[in-house]
Amino acid sequence: MIFLSITVILFAAIGVEFERIISTLTYFVNAKEVFTDKEQFCYDDLGCFNNSFPWTTFPTKLSSIPISPEKIAVEMLFYKNKSLSVFNEEVFDPNLPTIIGIHGWSPLLKRTSRKYVPKHIIFIADIFNAIQEKMDGNFIIVNWKKGSSTLNYPQSCSNIRVIGRQIAISLDKIANLDIENVHIIGHSLGAHMAGYIGKELQLMDKLVGRITGLDPAGPAFTFPSMWYDEFPNELEKTHLWYSDAEFVDVIHSDAGTFGGGHYGLSKPIGHIDFYPSMGRDQPFCNIYRYHNRLIEISQFNRLAFCDHRLSKVYFIDSIKRPNLYQFCNETICNTLGFTATKPSSRQTFYIPENNLPKFNKRN
After folding, report:
1. Cα(206)–Cα(174) distance, rounded to whole angstroms?
2. Which end of the chain has the smaller Cβ count within 10 Å, N or C?
3. Which domains does the chain have, with CATH numbers?
4. Contacts made by residues 287-296, CB under 8 angstroms, sequence distance 24+
5. Transferase as a keyword (predicted)?
6. What digits encode the pLDDT tens for the residues 72-98?
7. Which residue in 126, 215, 244, 273 is the catalytic one?
8. What pTM value is reported for the model?
C-alpha cells in the first residue's frame, strides 16, 4: 500500500491532464448502496458482495469498498463507423456476433485530438476498426471512466466487481442475445472485469463464448503459487480465469511483479497464454527507452506503461496480419490474437523477441 501511495503521488506531481468524461444516458439498473458490514456490502437491485476471504487477504486487502454504482455511472456504448452512440437494443442485431471492449485503469491520460472517441477508449476503437474491416457485428464499449480515473488504484480494483455484475445483468436483459456468441476483450483491469462478467453470467446459467485478456493487471491480483494449491477455488474468484468463458486467451506483455516495475500478471490464467518477448521488455519499448533516456515529463506516462500497452498493439496487428502471429511450442501451434483457437488442453507460448513480427507502434 505504501509503494502504491508513493507511486500515485509521483504521478500526480507530473501534472498530466485528465480526460474529460463523456456524459450520456446509462443502460444499467439504478443501484443505490443499502448497507455495508464486515462480511458484505450490498446495493439495491445488484444484491450483496462478499467482503471476507479472499477479498480480505493481501494483496486483495489493498482494495477498498467500491464507490456506489451511481457515482461510477458505467455506460454501454455502441461503436460503428468511428462514431459512438448510447446502447440501444432496438438497433442490436442478435444474429450477429457481439464484441465487447473494456478499458483499464485510466487516471493519467491526456486529452486526445480524435474528436470522435475519448483517449481512454482509443485502443478499443482501433481494435473495433480493424475487426469491422473483416466482419460485421455488434460492437459495444464499456465506459467506466468515472470508476477508473481515480489515482487510488486499489479503489478502481474494487470498483470492477460491481461493474462486472452490472454488465452481466444488462447482457442478460438483452432479448435473444446468444451469450455463447459474445467475445469480451479487456485490457489490464478491464481483463479482470471481463472475468467477473463471465463469473456472474455463469450464476445465471450462461457461459460467455470468449474472453481475451490483454496483459491482465498484476498489482493486487498476484498471489504466491503455494496459495493456489491451498485455496484454488477462492483465489480464482479474484481475477480472470480460464473457466470464466468457453475460451479464454491471454497476451502477457509486461509480466512480473509490481516491485520489479511490471504491471501485468505473470501467472498463466487462460486456456492459452502467449508471452511475446517472453512476457516483458518488448522490443519497441526497449528501443524507445534506449533512445529517450532524457525524457520530457510529458513522455513519462507513455514510457512507464509501454510494455503494458503493447499487448493491445499485438492484438490489433494480429487482426491485420494474422499469418505473422502463428507460433508453436513443444506441443502444438496456434495464433496469437484475434484468430486464436481453443486448444484441447491448456497451453503456454513463450515467444522469443526475434520471432516477433516487426511493426510501428502508432498509439
Report:
1. 13
2. N
3. 2-21+74-355 (3.40.50.1820)
4. none
5. no
6. 999 999 998 888 888 888 889 999 999
7. 215
8. 0.84
